[in-house]
Request: fold
Amino acid sequence: MTVSTMEAPAGKLIRPRVRLSVAQSLAQDIFSGKFAEGSNLPRENDLCEEYGVSRTVIREALKILQAKGLVVSRPRIGTIVCPQDEWNILDNQVLEWIGPNLDRMGLVDCILEARGAIEPMAAELAARRATMQEIADIEAAWQAMAKAGNDVEAFIAADTVFHELLLKASHNRIFQQFGALMDPALNFMLSTSAHSAENLEESIGQHGALVEALRLRDSEGARKLALALIAKAKHDVSAARSVKP
Amino acid sequence: MTVSTMEAPAGKLIRPRVRLSVAQSLAQDIFSGKFAEGSNLPRENDLCEEYGVSRTVIREALKILQAKGLVVSRPRIGTIVCPQDEWNILDNQVLEWIGPNLDRMGLVDCILEARGAIEPMAAELAARRATMQEIADIEAAWQAMAKAGNDVEAFIAADTVFHELLLKASHNRIFQQFGALMDPALNFMLSTSAHSAENLEESIGQHGALVEALRLRDSEGARKLALALIAKAKHDVSAARSVKP
DNA sequence: ATAGCATTATTTATCATACAAATGCAATTG
DNA sequence: CAATTGCATTTGTATGATAAATAATGCTAT
Reply:
């Protein structure tokens, strides 16, 4: 497959910026299993032909994958896929690239479990540390959820923002990073789980209660409500799985 | 500063593999504050002269930093340092590079807080899911701690392995990744906190109790003991701070 | 004068090519 | 048979040229 070229107004062929496209394509081939862990990627020169770009681009793309722990390169040996343990799955770009393979790789359950540990603590901290502005922003996200109505896409987007803001309001940079990182994962999970009308209603109610706890600086209440949110998320995901596995 | 060269047996000048060295050097200059967030790095050509390497190497090093969210590059603008929010601090290489600046950046407290959320949950899961072999390995690490005696270095190494194995035994890839990631941070924190004789004794006792809980599949006990370990770590760190701030 | 537009200058992005270094593999040699 | 030497292959680095993007500048027209 060669990289697409675009027609400029004057009719000149323009080559789009391609480094990231190549990196993404290679990464997705890894996550899809096309390149199994431990196996060799094609030689750099072969990749040049495959993608129709210079070796410079191929190498810089491979450097990106190396930086994320997906591959290692050595002279004469070639570039080989690292064991999964070494993949930097706490990198949001990596999570984006994994995308539809999240569940197949067993990461959805991992993520829900991890959120179960992190979000309650983050909510507790947010109840103590969040500024009035941050609480107001979270409430705005909640209102966006409530106002989404049947627009599932808008609901998901608002829900994602809600959790990201909550983690940021914990004023802990680790949790905050985790929030940005959960973005693609959340989108994927939410988009695949069931969305009945009463389901959305219940979710909106829970989120609202959490906002209220933040306002009251009720850290214990916030913790419990965050825990309940995760429990509901787990339930939704397993329900969605039983419908269409 | 030019990259050092080595004298080969025959007297030929050999250039060591330098990409990573350059990336590390630039990253450390960022974390030390030499390149403030939002400011420009030198032009690629200037960096070539500074490090005495070709533009190829400079660019591939910058690609690594880009992949970790430390900088962004755009034509005509140059390469600028990203805001700290975007730094990929959940990358163990980044954490290594931060090294001595961990505390100055306020990350030690963040990490302790995050561990407070994660390790109890991980211990709980490990009590349910760990294989006999994994428990044995954890116990071996504990024995190494006990046998370290006054060798603080060995004690720290064993302690690090203990926590890494514990997180791995949770059979959750997120937690596992977090363990590998904590490695450099743990080393730094442990090496800077107080190490009196009775302190070590108490720590060894707590870790031993946790191993026992794992053996008994006592998830609730494991959770509480992990929590106590973190509390002790927090205490040690603040004690070390009050001694030599 | 000023808002909008074309030009320019500067910097990164890509291409192309050549050579250096590392290393698996085979031939060679003691 | 073992050790070493040389060869072949692949990534690593160097170099120089061209393309694309865009801030800054200057120009034009209103």
Remarks:
- The radius of gyration of chain B is 21 Å.
